[in-house]
Amino acid sequence: PPYSIVAIHGLDGHREASFTADNGVFWLRDLLPEALSSARILTYGYDARTQGENRSQQTLYGISGDLVVKLSAFRISTGTGHRPLIFIAHSFGGIILKNALVHASSAHMGHLGDHKAVEISTYGVIFMGTPHQGMDLLEWTRSHVDGRSLGSLQDNPLLKPLLLHSEALQQQLIQYNSISARFKTVFCYELYAALGFMEDAVIPFSSAVVPGAVNAASLGIHKTHIEMVKFPSKEDDDYNNIVFQLQQMMDIAPSHIALNWMKHGISLPLGTSGQRQVMDPGNFELAPANKN
Description:
single chain, 292 residues, alpha/beta, 7-stranded mixed beta sheet
């Protein structure tokens, strides 16, 4: 059966550039379709600019709500509303995803059923350097932001929730932990420190991995925080480790998601490939990286 993989970038990122290596390989488009031929691969873009005059004024709540609305609308319009979902979320993209899944789980089939369908259909999540416990914004500014004070960053609506042990993140941990066991989870953490960034990773292991999480594993990536979602070739060991995790999820997802839907009174046929479609993303920020 076909699957959908949705990739979400982080702060100051882009739905293609964030996943493109220095040699121009956009692995979600150039490598992954060959390894996972039955997957439709999507990237979700949003305004994540934290710098300059045109920096984003969006909020975590607004972006995560948009993700659910646009993803559910896209699935309905393409006739794939029951298709299993696997997410790959980099950095702040993981914070957005957790909020989105909490929102979707609060809906029900009689109210915002298309939103509920996102949660029902989600089998797996791969977090790539997501700061579940927050991050040291002062140190982050030294490597990422040109000459702005911590005080000005704390006023940024996107950065404020990312303060170490912020109230927003602690509340999210409680809300998300109540549903996280429903999903197979892989916490990926960077093994290389960014050049000039202290002596540690941008997002340390203690923030990238949630201790005691159920149905979860952790995986080290031999790259820096920015590079950990950029794979230059199919010979890259980290790429192959991610592909292996995706393949494992895809082997189990159809039967698991079919059971989820059965609990809601809907029987899904197993073993059917569905119709191949060529999607036109139009003006949506949710865009297909390949043609499944």
